[in-house]
Amino acid sequence: MSVTLPSLDRYRALKVEMKNGLILRPMQYEALERADTSGVLLDIGGGNNSDYRRLLKCERYDSINIDPRIEPTWVLKVGERFPIDPGSYDVALSMNTFEHVFDTALLMEEIAKALKPGGRFVASTPFLYRIHAHPYDYYRPTGTWWEDTLGKYGFGNVAIQPLTWGPHSTALCARGISGAFKGIRSELAILQDLLYTRLRKGRADSLQQQLATIPVGYFVTAAKR
Question: Pick from 102, 119, 147, 121: which is nearest to 44 by CA?
Fold first, then answer.
């Protein structure tokens, strides 16, 4: 599992996407913009009003959500089957949705069925991140869970990227930011991590191994066999 180390230039780019003072979403969007989302795409948990919609490179966009305010193609309840023909999509995308689904086996079955052979799965979930019910928050999948689960449902070429900036910003994401001076406290945590990684730059391998164990989330890609 590869980790992208922090840098000042990278932080300047990520800061544009930072709305709540936490660094998870900016790192997710950074990874999503680099992912291959071309072709016909099904967004599970998205819709036309999703913040990341502008980052997608797809030729056609369909979506499923429980919330009509996100303007999905289909409004479904959690656990409902997808109203689509098997093998209809080149890409299945899921951003910050799996942690809110109790029966992930059914969800994985529906995603695998929706994709063409060779179709791409792209997903991201939080890990060391505060509980955020929408309407419920069930669990935090690890990289190993993703690898084994995707293999079970017929996916290969699994790539798992731990999303981590450093120990101080991870701690902030895990506990959340409350009270005054949220922006300043977030900036301090992120800059502390920049200094921390700069001081350990000579030991890049051990630093990468350490950061991989404290991710605020994961970004996952795979291909249907």
Answer: 121
